[in-house]
Amino acid sequence: MDERRMIRISKYLARHLRHDPQRIGITLDANGWVPVDVLLRAAATHGFPITPAELWQVVEGNDKRRYVLEDGRIRASQGHSVPVELGLPTVEPPEVLYHGTVGRFLAAIRREGLRRMSRQHVHLSPDRETATRVGARRGVPVILTVGAAAMHRDGRPFWLSANGVWLTDHVPPAFLRFPD
User: Fold this and answer.
1) Among positive and negative, which fits the CA dihedral 30, 36, 37, 42?
2) Which of 18, 16, 10, 8 is CA-nearest to residue 60?
3) CA angle centred on 10, ends 7 and 12, rounded to 5°
4) What is the pTM of this model?
5) Cβ 28 vs Cβ 21: under 8 Å
6) What does the alpha-carbon distance between residue 140 and residue 4 come to, in Å, rounded to a whole number?
7) Residues whose CB is less than 8 angstroms from the CB of residue 131 and which lie 6 or more positions away in sequence, other chains included
8) pLDDT in tens, 1-43
9) What are the structural domains of the chain?
């Protein structure tokens, strides 16, 4: 499969497994799973046929490991705007995590911290490189350092998604370090 097709399928999956499953008539279970055959049938019915081999290649070939296949089911690893319970255990985070953003959001972040906005969690990166790639999607990246261990000691929960993205409910401004 060529790169363009892989990207189109990945974006299609993101839309329907994270944000708008009802658009193609699928229902995610409480944990975000849908049977693969149901997804493939719905995609074909709605004009976007995906073969099982293509689906497998997108799941296995995606460097961000956005999707999980298990027991004939598929789900997005994180990033849902529809309510799902990923069933992830709370875990102790490293001393610091990182968040990539752009300059136009800094004033609001300084006032309110990092909020989940339309998603279920705030997404944090384990390293500056990943945060830089995330921030660069919207412009010139600005990397914030999150005092994750201090947040954890303060009683704030963290979860680690299947693809290595750290999740939390909110990062108050007191736990953020901004670049000079």
Assistant:
1) positive
2) 10
3) 110
4) 0.75
5) yes
6) 25
7) 98, 99, 100, 124, 125, 141, 143, 144
8) 899 999 999 999 999 999 999 999 999 999 999 999 999 999 9
9) 3-76 (1.10.10.970), 97-177 (3.20.170.30)
